[in-house]
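Subject: sequence -> structure tokens, single chain

Hey, anyone have a minute? Need the predicted structure for the following. Not urgent.
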Amino acid sequence: MEIRPATPEDVPVLFDLICALAEYEHLSHLVTGSAELLRHHLFGPEAFVSALVAEVEEQVVGFALYFRNFSTFLTRPGIYLEDLFVLPEFRGRGIGKALLARVAQEAVAKGYGRLEWRVLDWNQPAIEFYRRLGAKPHPEWILHRVVGAELEALARLAEDPYPS
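Reply:
Had a minute. Here:
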């Protein structure tokens, strides 16, 4: 097994793995992006995300996709792990653990204050996996999200935050 930074050549298989993750999470209907958008945000002029891939016998079988965030309380950057996924037939070999450890290694090397992520409440195998590695859930924090039309409506408030 080899863990390495993703390259532009990995983008098609990375996007396929993202689709496999969405299928596993029963969220395929929410995948509206594309390999080209992924390429742009990984390797474009204003790259926003980073990714590591796990290879077994020259086959990419897993990935970790992450980006920087910031803690005002720590006054230090951190890393938000957006996705960690290993193909089902390759689980149980330490691949997910190796990917997560490499992301943690980057956070420590850069002096970041934390590494965090979310996990679906029904995904007990993932919850147990993360707990075994020392992660602690924070159930008092509730994720809020605006997308699509609601995001656009909220953005329009910036034009006139006090409509008559």
